[in-house]
């Protein structure tokens, strides 16, 4: 249909030109472009309709490529016949139009560039220049993105010899229009002068280029917002594999790689399935966004899942099922990459690999001598562990586990031939093998290895052996969690967590985790710790609480792996409570004796406390880049030390007078220049709670700060310091106390771009407030961070002095929640009178947005509540804000009517987003309101555990 319309257009134009010449290129473009534009729009519309109808992404890309071929050919004919006809062309008046790059492969995404080579015989002429210019102007007027080059055959070869990107573009070319003989000459000389004898050089360059590309796009193929084109496991990886195969084996089609021996027929089908799926996703992305969008971002994942026909099933949402399918394809692409790398190594085109080296990472060619030695039922070839023969696994299925144990023990990479055989032998992993004592002992050795358990487990996972041997693990392979907090799929997160724990134990992370580094070699249940970490998220994606289900799985798996009853109990306890320590540390007042007592009541022993700390550190660190912060480490260390005191027989309440006296004495020693009378007067300004709650590092700073403010006659003053290790900046504020003080401070921080992670609030006996606000750092360099802190502190001072209107400043900072729009977080308001001896604890969960903390503290101020401390935890798009409050008389909030009024006010704040956002969230929020109003308070430890599971 497209070809017929274009042929008809060409005939019509020639007739019109004979009747009345167009005169110049501009007049011709004005006549041609509208029709070509309409034709392209119709073609795109038809391609999208066929994509929905057929569900074939590669067919869609080829259809679009054919349409573009016809358009380019027609433009050439129009320009050549009408504008610049040549009756008897000289040897220099020849031109060949060649498709290159992705377009040269005959597949074109809806928003991709049209890559063209204007091929000249040996030099540019006025005719050739005019032809190229006229064609490009028409293509540009069609609003096409055209990547183009104008070169002679000699120039192409010269450029391709020195630049592998150009050489690769020349590898995949198609003749579209013009002089076919000129194109044939290029192909023949390219093969003879560039390809011949340079396979090893090309392979090394392409694999090195791939390494750089995936590092830039994200080194893991399990990133939750993957790049479909350039990410690891994406289309470009498949392109690279075919480029290598085509260059090395001199084939024109991927199917010929079977005959060449690179792929089996089954692997060819896998290549084709991966290619079609990735093209389908890519075409839908381009059609949906109207541009060359390659990143599968959160806001697009739901849409693409719907376009591809995924639906909710088995505890997974439609988008989670779609992304699981995507990551399984990415895994398959990784398997194909390993196959090609092994084939190239066999041709001595890669350096000798080690176990944990990134496949495809090259440091120069090395013609290694192929040496062979035996290790039990396996052999080592070229420093890779392989099988003796095809019967290795069938003769003894335990060898499927032993293969990986030997790889870990001898620090060997596994030969892709062995990996391929393992994948083909997965049916041998039966219930009998899962019960086999030898197999389970080998797996336990792998999991708890002192060598490189992360690398081995990842390889086991990629072959499918891990998920088959531990079926519950198989359920979470390639499973993503649709939120902004987790950066990796669940299986990748668990494997990375094991790697982080192994690095801790090896002493490589002592600077970042000093407490963990000190205690990790004092634990008694090392095996239990590794297994608990491996299992802590294994029940994700089920309708029941994953911590509870995970504990049940642990109780079944522990005896199978050979754990003692005590070890199994420890593993189950750790899995069930794996979120508790993180939640308590980030969302509770760690100076409140009830917080520590409740947590200690759950932990009960020092061994559990140590294990839980180590598991928590490894878990948070494996969530993704930037998730672990020094501030979180500080909170965990504080919770650990306070709980250690209680578990060691101390009683926080009984020790209060002595601790207050000690705190005063230490501060007195730090202020030798103060007179006794001056210090006594200062000390009496503080209530007893200050001496128990304020960190010793701050007390001296507070004293000097308040003294300077008094001396300067300042009723409002601010000070600031930054702490690189903890990753926070502290802003201290002194001001006359009033109920809306914290709201003003948080509003000023929000207006100045400060992200609050914690707040300590003290009131003096003479009616002043001494607040310390902790902001997450925005800059690595202290001088930059201090300049920002000065700006935030200045904003706070102006607000407290009434020089600016906070509400207006905060409203000016509010922006549409573009990043969080795809997510729905069910709002929840919990009032708890048991989590603290003196305060009512209010926990607010909801979708994060700019100015939310200011809105919440403003609402609490209007409710005449005194805020004693605020603790802010953010998990991606979800925020959990916790406030310790009293009424104006200093008592807890007891009356049900008053509690309901607080819930209603805070619910209104959470739902107080823009009308568009509220509409998107309305259904979930409506359900949550009744749930929140009917929620009863729970004991601090239990309630925190529930909150921890919500934060998963």
Automatic annotation (TrEMBL):
Residues 916-934 have a biased composition (Basic and acidic residues). Keywords: Hydrolase, Magnesium, Multifunctional enzyme, Nucleotidyltransferase, Repeat, Transferase. One of its GO terms (molecular function) is phosphoric diester hydrolase activity. Its cofactor is Mg(2+). Residues 1-374 are annotated as: Uridylyltransferase. Its EC number is 2.7.7.59, 3.1.4.-. It comes from the Bacteria. Modifies, by uridylylation and deuridylylation, the PII regulatory proteins (GlnB and homologs), in response to the nitrogen status of the cell that GlnD senses through the glutamine level. Under low glutamine levels, catalyzes the conversion of the PII proteins and UTP to PII-UMP and PPi, while under higher glutamine levels, GlnD hydrolyzes PII-UMP to PII and UMP (deuridylylation). Thus, controls uridylylation state and activity of the PII proteins, and plays an important role in the regulation of nitrogen metabolism. Has four distinct domains: an N-terminal nucleotidyltransferase (NT) domain responsible for UTase activity, a central HD domain that encodes UR activity, and two C-terminal ACT domains that seem to have a role in glutamine sensing. Belongs to the GlnD family. This is Bifunctional uridylyltransferase/uridylyl-removing enzyme. It comes from Saliniramus fredricksonii. The lineage of its organism: Bacteria, Pseudomonadati, Pseudomonadota, Alphaproteobacteria, Hyphomicrobiales. The gene is glnD.
């Amino acid at each position: 249909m497209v070809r017929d319309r274009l042929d008809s257009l060409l005939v019509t134009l020639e007739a019109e030109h004979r009747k009345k010449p167009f005169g110049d290129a501009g007049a011709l473009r004005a006549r041609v472009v509208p029709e070509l534009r309409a034709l392209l729009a119709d073609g795109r519309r038809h391609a999208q309709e066929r994509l929905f109808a057929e569900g074939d992404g590669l067919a869609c890309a080829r259809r679009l490529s054919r349409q573009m071929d016809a358009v380019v050919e027609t433009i050439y004919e129009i320009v050549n016949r009408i504008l610049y006809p040549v009756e008897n062309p000289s040897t220099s008046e020849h031109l060949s139009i060649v498709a290159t790059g992705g377009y040269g492969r005959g597949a074109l995404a809806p928003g991709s560039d049209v890559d063209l080579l204007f091929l000249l015989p040996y030099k540019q002429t006025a005719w050739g220049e005019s032809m190229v210019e006229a064609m490009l102007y028409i293509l540009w007027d069609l609003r096409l993105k055209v990547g183009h080059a104008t070169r002679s055959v000699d120039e192409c070869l010269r450029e391709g010899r020195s630049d592998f990107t150009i050489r690769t573009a020349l590898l995949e070319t198609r003749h579209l229009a013009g002089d076919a003989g000129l194109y044939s000459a290029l192909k023949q000389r390219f093969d003879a002068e560039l390809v011949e004898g340079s396979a090893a050089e090309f392979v090394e360059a392409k694999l090195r280029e791939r390494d750089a590309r995936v590092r830039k796009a994200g080194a893991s193929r399990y990133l939750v917002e993957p790049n479909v084109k350039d990410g690891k496991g994406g289309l470009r990886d498949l392109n690279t594999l075919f480029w290598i195969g085509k260059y090395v084996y001199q084939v024109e089609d991927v199917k010929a790689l079977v005959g060449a021996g690179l792929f089996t027929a089954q692997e060819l089908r896998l290549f084709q399935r991966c290619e079609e799926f990735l093209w389908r996703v890519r075409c839908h992305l381009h059609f949906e966004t109207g541009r060359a969008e390659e990143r599968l971002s959160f806001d697009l994942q739901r849409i693409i899942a719907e376009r591809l026909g995924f639906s909710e099933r088995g505890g997974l949402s439609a988008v989670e099922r779609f992304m699981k399918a995507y990551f399984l394809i990415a895994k398959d692409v990784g398997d194909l990459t390993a196959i090609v790398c092994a084939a190239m190594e066999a041709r001595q085109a890669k350096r000798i690999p080690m176990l944990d080296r990134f496949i495809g990472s090259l440091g120069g060619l090395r013609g290694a001598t192929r040496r062979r030695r035996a290790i039990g039922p396996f052999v080592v070839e070229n420093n890779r562990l392989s099988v003796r023969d095809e019967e290795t696994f069938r003769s003894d299925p335990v060898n499927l586990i032993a293969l990986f144990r030997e790889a870990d023990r001898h620090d060997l990479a596994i030969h892709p031939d062995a990996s391929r055989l393992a994948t083909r032998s997965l049916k041998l992993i039966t219930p009998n093998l899962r019960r086999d004592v030898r197999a389970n002992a080998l797996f336990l050795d792998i999991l708890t290895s002192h060598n490189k358990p992360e690398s081995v487990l990842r390889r086991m996972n990629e072959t499918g052996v891990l998920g088959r041997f531990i079926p519950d693990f198989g359920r979470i392979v390639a499973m993503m969690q649709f939120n902004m907090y987790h950066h990796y799929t669940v299986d990748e997160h668990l494997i990375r967590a094991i790697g982080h724990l192994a690095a801790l134990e090896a002493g490589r992370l002592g600077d970042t985790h000093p407490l963990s580094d000190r205690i990790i070699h004092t634990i008694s249940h090392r095996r239990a710790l590794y297994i608990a970490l491996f299992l802590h998220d294994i029940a994700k994606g089920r309708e029941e609480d994953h911590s509870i289900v995970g504990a049940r799985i642990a109780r079944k798996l522990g005896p199978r792996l050979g754990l003692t009853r005590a070890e199994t109990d420890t593993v189950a306890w750790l899995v069930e409570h794996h979120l508790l320590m993180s939640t308590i540390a980030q969302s509770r007042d760690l100076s409140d004796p009830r917080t520590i007592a409740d947590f200690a009541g759950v932990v009960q022993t020092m061994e559990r406390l140590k294990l839980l700390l180590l598991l928590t550190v490894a878990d948070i660190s494996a969530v993704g880049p930037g998730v672990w912060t020094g501030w979180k480490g500080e909170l965990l260390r504080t919770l650990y030390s306070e709980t250690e005191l209680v578990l060691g027989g101390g009683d926080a309440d009984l020790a209060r007078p002595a601790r207050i006296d000690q705190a005063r004495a230490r501060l007195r020693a730090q202020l030798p220049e103060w007179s006794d009378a001056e210090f006594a007067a200062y000390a009496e300004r503080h209530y007893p709670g200050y001496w128990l709650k304020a960190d010793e590092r701050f007390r001296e700073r507070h004293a000097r700060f308040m003294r300077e403010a008094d001396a300067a006659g300042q009723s409002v003053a601010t000070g600031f310091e930054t702490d690189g290790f903890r990753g926070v900046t502290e802003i201290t504020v002194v001001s006359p106390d009033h109920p809306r003080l914290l709201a003003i401070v948080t509003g000023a921080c929000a207006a100045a771009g400060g992200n609050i992670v914690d707040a300590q609030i003290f009131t003096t006996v003479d009616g002043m407030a001494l607040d310390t606000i902790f902001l997450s750092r925005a800059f690595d360099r202290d001088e930059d961070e201090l300049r920002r802190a000065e700006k935030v502190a200045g904003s706070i001072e102006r607000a407290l002095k009434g020089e600016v209107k906070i509400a207006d400043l905060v409203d000016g900072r509010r922006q549409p929640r573009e990043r969080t729009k795809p997510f729905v977080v069910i709002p929840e308001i919990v009032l708890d009178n048991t989590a603290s001896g003196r305060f009512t604890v209010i926990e607010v969960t909801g979708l994060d947005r700019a100015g939310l903390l200011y809105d919440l503290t403003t609402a609490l101020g209007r409710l005449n509540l005194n805020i004693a401390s605020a603790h802010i935890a953010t998990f991606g798009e979800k925020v959990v804000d916790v406030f310790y409050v009293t009424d104006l008389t200093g008592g807890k909030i007891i009356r049900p009517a008053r509690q309901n009024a607080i819930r209603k006010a805070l619910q209104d704040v959470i739902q107080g987003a823009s009308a568009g956002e509220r509409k998107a969230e309305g259904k979930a929020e409506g359900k949550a309101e009744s749930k929140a109003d009917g929620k009863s308070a729970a004991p601090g430890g239990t309630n925190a555990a529930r909150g921890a599971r919500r934060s998963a």
